[in-house]
């Protein structure tokens, strides 16, 4: 009837990190029908349906609980997922037995109940229930339950999408995104890919000193061909842990895209890469808005002036409203301390945004210009430069990971190395 259940509610609550920090992979294109008994649960399910991670799912809500579900499927096929709310234990088990007679093979059932009892849970498992969630539920509980039905336990770390965008053109968002991706790959030892979404003027290829014959344009203009093998052929290897999906940076065609133009590329990257860094150009279109809202974490790069403050505030407000179950975007200040330029202090910036910047990166044209002209990262130009630690701070905040611990050397290290060699 329905797929095997995962872990108990108590185990989930013990193992799960705080809701605002955990990574929940988006659900695929599935149909979900919920049968609720209370207005509160119906409201939570409705709010869940508006979450970005269920953006591809088709959700329908009905009142009436178990009885309504059994009646509905006597003459209609069942969806991919059924969400049922029930109060009583006897009615629940008996109702599930009746539902099994009209339920199509492969349909998954999520039960929302109020009885916290391991015996009941075992009975639900025996009947093939996929998940049991204790009421009262919030929107994020429903999102987590449905999305986890389609996420393999061993793949929890796969597919974290980080979007980096400038609050204004020319603030150095691409430079920041490329150096942060470098820190993720080198210092956090995560396999990462940089996707340069500025197809006409992207600089990722220049910054990483790469000139691949193919890149992201080949995928965007051939959506029917996009799969894991096709994307792998388009990737350019920068380091052992870092790859690049480069932009063509040519003007021989016009890059007008539909809202969902990049969906196939992002979905494929999610299934193969632990970390995807999107270098989002400073333009406002349906696809850029979709990329930002659909990302797991967002970094806004701003310079300390009035236009950047206004744009950062607008982006913050829009993204917080569109992503109510995610943590707010992060932002950093860049090009701080330009000689003779009036600037808005970081404290005033933070007061207006109601959030502190992750870091404030000073204006240092000499080293940043040298890195850009040489096709290198700041860490390659100057291993001890203070901005490297800032890039690592951003990487840690965006990924939720700490720096990979390095073994401390001691007086006996040379001797140990020799013994290992033998």
Describe the structure.
Helix content is 40%, strand content 16%. It is α/β, with parallel strands linked by helices and 422 residues long. It folds into two domains: 9-154, 3-Layer(aba) Sandwich (Rossmann fold); 158-399, Rossmann fold (3-Layer(aba) Sandwich), CATH 3.40.50.300. It has an eight-stranded mixed β-sheet, sandwiched between helices. Strands 2-1-3-4-5 form a five-stranded parallel β-sheet, sandwiched between helices. β12, α14 (346-353) and β13 form a beta-alpha-beta unit.
Write the layout of secondary structure elements.
Blueprint: H1 9-15, E1 31-36, H2 39-49, E2 58-63, H3 65-72, E3 81-86, H4 89-102, E4 108-113, H5 118-126, E5 131-134, H6 139-148, E6 160-166, H7 173-186, E7 192-196, H8 204-207, H9 216-220, H10 228-234, E8 236-237, E9 242-245, H11 263-272, E10 275-280, H12 286-294, E11 297-302, H13 306-322, E12 330-336, H14 346-353, E13 360-362, H15 365-374, H16 378-381, H17 386-399, H18 413-421
Parallel strand pairs: 1-2, 1-3, 3-4, 4-5, 6-10, 6-11, 7-9, 7-10, 11-12, 12-13
Antiparallel strand pairs: 8-9
Strand order of the largest sheet: 8-9-7-10-6-11-12-13
Please tell me what the overall shape is: elongated
Classify the helix fraction into a percent range: 40-55%
Which structural category do the helix and sheet elements fall into?
alpha/beta
Helix count from the secondary structure assignment: 18
Number of domains in the coordinates? 2
CATH class term of the largest domain:
Alpha Beta
The strand count comes to 13
CATH architecture of the largest domain: 3-Layer(aba) Sandwich
Poorly predicted segments: 1-20, 405-411
What value does the average pLDDT take? 86
Oligomer type: single chain
């Amino acid at each position: 009837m329905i797929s095997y259940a995962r872990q108990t509610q108590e185990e989930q609550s013990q193992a799960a990190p705080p809701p605002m920090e955990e990574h929940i992979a988006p659900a695929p294109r599935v149909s979900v029908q919920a049968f609720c008994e209370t207005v509160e649960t119906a409201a939570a399910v409705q709010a869940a349906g508006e979450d970005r991670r269920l953006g591809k799912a088709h959700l329908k809500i009905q009142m009436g609980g178990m009885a309504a579900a059994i009646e509905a499927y006597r003459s209609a096929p069942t969806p991919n997922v059924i969400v049922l709310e029930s109060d009583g234990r006897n009615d629940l088990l008996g109702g599930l037995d009746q539902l099994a007679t009209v339920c199509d093979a492969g349909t998954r059932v999520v039960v929302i109940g109020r009885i916290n009892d391991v015996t009941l849970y075992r009975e639900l498992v025996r009947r093939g229930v996929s998940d049991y969630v204790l009421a009262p539920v919030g929107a994020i509980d429903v999102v987590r339950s449905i999305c986890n039905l389609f996420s393999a336990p061993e793949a929890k770390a796969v597919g974290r999408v980080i979007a980096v965008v400038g609050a204004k053109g020319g603030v150095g968002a691409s430079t920041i995104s490329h150096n942060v991706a470098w820190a993720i790959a080198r210092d956090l030892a995560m396999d990462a890919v940089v996707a340069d979404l500025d197809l006409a003027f992207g600089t990722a290829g220049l910054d990483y000193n790469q000139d691949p014959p193919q890149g992201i344009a080949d995928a965007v203009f051939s959506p029917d061909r996009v799969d894991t093998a096709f994307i792998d052929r388009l990737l350019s290897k920068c380091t052992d842990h870092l790859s690049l999906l480069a932009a063509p940076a040519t003007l021989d065609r016009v890059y007008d895209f539909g809202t969902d133009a990049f969906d196939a590329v992002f979905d494929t990257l999610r299934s193969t890469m632990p970390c995807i860094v999107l270098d989002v150009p400073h333009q406002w279109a349906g696809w850029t808005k979709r990329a930002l809202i659909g990302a797991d974490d967002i970094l806004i790069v701003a310079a300390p002036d009035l236009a950047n403050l206004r744009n950062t505030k607008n982006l913050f407000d829009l993204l917080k409203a569109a992503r109510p179950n995610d943590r707010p975007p992060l932002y950093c200040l860049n090009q701080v301390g330009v000689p003779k330029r009036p600037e808005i202090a970081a404290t005033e910036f933070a007061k207006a945004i109601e959030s502190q910047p992750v870091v404030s990166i000073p204006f240092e044209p000499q080293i940043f210009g040298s890195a850009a002209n040489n096709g290198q990262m700041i860490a390659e130009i100057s291993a001890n430069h203070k901005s490297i630690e800032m890039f690592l701070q951003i990487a840690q905040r965006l990924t939720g990971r700490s720096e990979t611990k390095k073994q401390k050397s001691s007086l006996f290290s040379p001797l140990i190395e020799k013994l290992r060699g033998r």
